[in-house]
Structures are given as C-alpha cells and as structure tokens.
Specification:
Elements lengths: L3 H4 L5 E4 L4 E3 L4 E3 L2 E7 L4 E6 L5 E8 L2 E8 L5 E2 L4 E5 L2 E5 L4 E4 L4 E4 L3 E7 L4 E7 L9 E2 L23 H4 L1
Antiparallel strand pairs: 1-4, 2-3, 4-14, 5-13, 5-15, 6-12, 6-14, 7-8, 7-11, 7-13, 9-10, 9-12
Length: 171
C-alpha cells in the first residue's frame, strides 16, 4: 500500500467511445477514452511514453499538477539534450528536457507518442483528466524504470469485471 501512495495510481475509464481500433505495427487502441484519477501530494505516475497513444492531460481541479517531459532518443530512451515542443492550452510551448512545470486547474497539455511524461500531485490532491486513445497496456507503454502494470492474481473465481489484459482470455 505504501508504494501505491507514492508511485502508482488507479485510473478508471470514465468514457470509452467505441471499440474501433487504430492499427499500428505495435498495437491497436480504442479511438477515444476519458480517464479520471486523483494524485495525492507527491504521488506520481512514473515516467513513460507510448508508441501510438496521443493524450490530452487536464488538471480538472485541486492543486497544481507537476509535469516532467523528455523526448525519446533513437534507441527509445529519454533524451536529456533536446527540447520538447508540445501544445499547452492550444499554444505551442517549448520545454527544456526534464524541466519541472505545473498545470493549474483548468490547464492542459497534449502529449504525443515518443514524449516521456511523469506527473505528480504538487501542493495538494489533484483531479487529473486524460482524454486519449485508450491505452493498450500490453504493447503501448514504455517505462523508464521497470514497473508492473497489474499484480499477479491467483484467480479462485471468474472475474466480475475484466482488466483490459483479460479480454483475450475471456472474450
């Protein structure tokens, strides 16, 4: 439980708009989903990027949402030498690699494939919204440090609700 409060979060999907897929060499993703999650002070979403997923991350309320960004190098690792240029509230903004900046309630940033991103609650609990292609947990997450997506579960009953990684086994 202690680790969850510092480096993980529970991200329920609030809205999933269809199961049409965007195909790529690496994965297929649902067209659109909206996820909502809380981040406590100093609780973080570990630094990661995606091969396909594009996402708008919105501070929906509470405190400041801390953000750290890096581009990817050719080998797929974070690049600490090149600036990251992204859309923040609809305007192009340049960020130094690894620069810490903060989204106030109502502010947003658009993240594109290949940009490593990390988030955390800065000064108080933050409600974070993410409108994006739905995440393909198996094929579209690249973390800087090894993290498990889901704990190993010894099933003793049929699942009541499926995790995205369960669909191939149960449907």
């Amino acid at each position: 439980m202690i680790e969850f409060l510092t480096i993980n979060t529970d991200i329920p999907t609030a809205v999933s708009m269809g199961w049409r897929a965007v195909a790529s060499e690496r994965c297929s993703c649902t067209i659109c989903a909206e996820n909502l999650f809380f981040l406590e002070v100093d609780q973080s979403v570990p630094s990661h990027t995606h091969y396909v997923k594009i996402e708008d991350v919105i501070n929906r309320g509470g405190g400041l949402l801390g953000v750290e960004l890096f581009n990817s190098k050719e080998d797929g690792t974070p690049d600490d030498s090149s600036s990251v240029i992204l859309s923040k509230d609809g305007e192009k903004v340049e960020f130094a690699p690894g620069e810490h900046f903060y989204l106030k309630p109502g502010e947003s940033i658009t993240l594109v494939p290949g940009v490593y991103h990390k988030f955390w609650g800065s000064n108080e609990k933050v409600l974070v919204g993410e409108v994006s292609l739905a995440n393909d947990d198996v094929n579209d997450n690249v973390f800087v440090e090894e993290v498990g997506r889901f704990p190993d579960i010894e099933e003793d009953e049929e699942p009541y609700h499926l995790l995205i990684t369960d669909y191939d086994s149960f449907i």
